[in-house]
Amino acid sequence: MKKLLISPSKMALGEQESQIYQNILKQASELSLNLMAVKVENHPEDFLGWCYELLSASKDRINYDLLEPQQLPVLKKLHDQLISAISFLQLKTLRVAPWPVISMFVEQHKDIIALEEQLRLTTYVQNIRKQALKDMIPEDLLAFSGKHTATLDPSTYNFDVEWFASTKSAKGFHQMLADLPGAFDDALANIPLEGDVSQGDYQQFVVTYLLAFNGSDEKPTLAPATRLLAMRRPDVFTPISNSRLDALCAALGITKLNNRDFERYWQDVVQSIHAMSWFKMATGSNELEAQLVNIKALLPCFFYYADKNTADNSNYIKLLNKPKRSTTSAGKPQRRGKESAEILVDRALAADDIPEHIRSKRDSIISEVQKGRGVNETISLMRTIFG
User: Fold this and answer.
1) What residues contact residue 180 under an 8 Å CB cut-off, 6+ apart?
2) Of the four, 33, 112, 235, 244, which is 20 to 30 A from 288 by CA?
3) Cβ count within 10 A of residue 96
4) For residue 110, what is the DSSP state?
């Protein structure tokens, strides 16, 4: 372990990496006796590999029983620093890596980052993107805006809606979105669905987005706005989240944005990413690459730290493994609005493999879905009963 801890001092680290290394050492020094008891056989010669190895040693192989209670927050901070460092180092490769390297990284990490599930989200949003927010059913609005709730039927929403920058903590934003969706439609209308997006288009979006909050006690913030933009044009806008902003800004070599830096977001994030070689040269030489090109501004999200637990921590997977009939705290099934139930059922019944006699049970299926039963679960039950 001692050899591992001192090995970065022999690496050719840049100024940012050296500072990260020193900060990590400060936390590690308070855990030195515990860390020294961990056996280390892998000694990477690069800083990214070093961060992964130290994270593994301090997270998966350290003896937690020997830690004092006051050491646990220190260990948590060490893990957070290492995870942030890994995200920074992986994102930093975007500055210089060509398109084949970027697409290969995504493909090689597809299982860890739950790529198939994330692409299901982007495909779903692509199919509802032209619809006005005010006309969306509540579930679709959650999918577009990035907030998970237990009302999302995993048989229909077979993805975690919080991939690509969760907005679950932006309670004021979601209240405004629920109350005045048309105001956010007016803002998004400034961003064309196809073709180039100019700085003027973006500036008009910002003006209209800020106006949506006039007369409200809620403050308009940047992160949820970038989620809306990214879902509107995933080939142009990269979403940001407060928890990952440090790593992204450091990787781009910019001063950290604050939650009102709308102007700097365009200049320092959007324009910086658009200027990168891989972004300009992105081309679809196979099916996966073709999908990635359509959402190329989202690709930085795949370079944040992920591990073997990331895919299983998806809200979709968690919801899928819960009892099929979700309940409220009072123990009653959560009901859906009739409009939502009708739309979700009609989508499912439109599938080619649904027999006509099952389609004729539409009203009965809608009734069960309104009561909180899953769409696919209800249709499957009907097929079992009626063949």
Assistant:
1) 212
2) 244
3) 10
4) T
